[in-house]
C-alpha cells in the first residue's frame, strides 16, 4: 500500500494508504498532484506522518512495515531531529532522499546542521540517499526500492540504536581490586562507544556501590561521547562490601525516576561476587515497571547470569563475572 504527503509550510495528505488498490490508479493520481510551494518544513511533515498518517483509519496494516521516504530539496526550514526520533520510536522506518544539498557556503543557512544524520537510523548510510541533481533522481529509484524491500534491515525503530537511558551499576567492593576495576571501566567505555550519545539519542548514567551507593553521573549530565568517556575513565575505585540489591534500588530511584518517557530503560549490573543482601526482589521490582517480560536463566562458566528482557519499561541484566 502506498500514499503521498506533500509538505511546504504545512503537510497535507494527497493520497492515503487505502485510496488506490492498483498501480495504474495510483500513477494517474500522482500525475494530478499540484505543487504547494512555500517553505520546506520537514519536521512538521514527520510529526504529521507519525501522529496522523500511519493510522488504522488511514489504511495502515499492523503486520506490514511502516516506511516513509522523505524527499528534500536542498535543506529543511525547520528542525527534524526530535520529530524523526519520535517517528522511528513509533515503528516508522525513515529514508531521506536529499536533492542538491547545501554547498559549503549555504551550510551557514541551515536550521539544523547535519540534519540527515540526525533524522535517520545510524546504519552506515542505509537510510539516506544523497542525489547530486534532479536529473540524477531517476537513477535513485532502483537502489531505493531495493533498500525498502530489504525487510531484514527495516528494524531501525526496534533496535537499541535510537533512544535509550542506560544505567551501569558497578561493583566497587574490595574483592574486585584496582586492576579489575579498571577492566570493568574499560568494558563500560567499550559498550558506550557503540551508541549515539545525545539528549535525544542514548544517555548514560553510572552508579558505583559497596555496602553504600554513589551516583557517579546522571542521565544527560554528559551529552557528548568524548565527555562521557572521560567521565567513565575518571571514576575512582571505592572498595568495601557488596550490597547489589540495594544498589539496584538506588539506581532505579536516582536515575530512572528522572528518565524520559520515550526512552528505553536499560540497567546493566556488573558484580564479581555474591551479594550480602537479596538481589532477586529488587531486580524484579525494577523489571516490573515493564509491560511484558520473559525471565531467562542460564549458568555460565565462572559465574551465574540472570537476564530479564522487556519490550517496554526497564530491562535489567544481572551480570556476575
UniProtKB/TrEMBL annotation:
InterPro entries: ECM_Assembly_Org, VWF_A, vWFA_dom_sf
Pfam families attached to this UniProt entry: VWA (PF00092)
Domain VWFA: 1-148, 165-290
CDD domains in the record: vWA_collagen
PROSITE patterns: VWFA
PANTHER family reported for this sequence: COLLAGEN ALPHA, PH DOMAIN-CONTAINING PROTEIN
Listed name of the protein: Vitrin
Organism: Lates calcarifer (Barramundi)
Lineage: Eukaryota, Metazoa, Chordata, Craniata, Vertebrata
Amino acid at each position: 500500500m502506498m500514499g503521498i504527503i506533500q509538505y511546504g509550510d504545512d503537510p497535507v495528505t494527497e493520497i492515503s494508504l487505502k485510496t488506490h488498490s492498483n498501480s495504474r490508479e495510483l500513477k494517474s493520481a500522482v500525475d494530478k498532484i499540484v505543487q504547494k510551494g512555500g517553505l520546506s518544513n520537514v519536521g512538521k511533515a514527520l510529526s504529521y506522518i507519525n501522529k496522523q498518517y500511519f493510522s488504522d483509519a488511514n489504511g495502515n496494516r499492523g503486520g506490514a512495515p511502516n516506511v516513509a521516504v522523505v524527499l528534500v530539496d536542498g535543506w529543511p526550514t525547520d528542525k527534524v531531529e526530535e520529530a524523526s526520533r519520535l517517528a522511528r520510536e513509533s515503528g516508522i522506518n525513515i529514508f531521506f532522499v536529499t536533492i542538491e544539498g547545501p554547498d559549503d557556503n549555504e551550510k551557514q543557512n541551515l536550521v539544523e546542521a547535519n540534519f540527515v544524520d540526525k533524522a535517520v537510523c545510524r546504519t552506515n548510510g542505509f537510510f539516506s540517499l544523497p542525489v547530486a541533481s534532479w536529473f540524477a533522481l531517476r537513477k535513485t529509484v532502483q537502489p531505493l526500492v531495493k533498500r525498502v524491500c530489504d525487510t531484514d534491515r527495516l528494524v531501525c525503530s526496534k533496535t537499541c540504536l535510537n533512544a535509550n537511558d542506560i544505567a551501569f551499576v558497578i561493583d566497587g567492593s574490595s574483592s574486585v581490586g584496582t586492576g579489575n576495576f579498571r577492566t570493568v571501566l574499560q568494558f563500560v567505555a567499550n559498550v558506550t562507544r557503540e551508541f549515539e550519545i545525545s539528549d535525544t539519542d542514548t544517555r548514560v548514567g553510572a552508579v558505583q556501590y559497596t555496602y553504600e551507593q554513589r551516583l557517579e553521573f546522571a542521565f544527560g549530565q554528559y551529552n557528548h561521547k568524548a565527555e562521557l568517556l572521560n567521565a567513565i575513565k575518571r571514576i575512582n575505585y571505592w572498595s568495601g562490601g557488596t550490597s547489589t540489591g540495594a544498589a539496584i534500588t538506588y539506581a532505579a530511584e536516582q536515575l530512572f525516576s528522572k528518565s524520559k518517557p520515550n526512552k528505553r530503560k536499560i540497567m546493566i549490573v556488573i558484580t564479581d561476587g555474591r551479594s550480602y543482601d537479596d538481589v532477586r526482589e529488587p531486580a524484579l521490582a525494577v523489571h516490573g515497571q515493564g509491560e511484558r517480560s520473559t525471565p531467562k536463566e542460564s549458568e555460565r562458566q565462572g559465574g551465574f547470569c540472570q537476564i530479564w528482557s522487556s519490550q517496554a519499561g526497564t530491562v535489567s541484566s544481572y551480570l556476575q563475572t
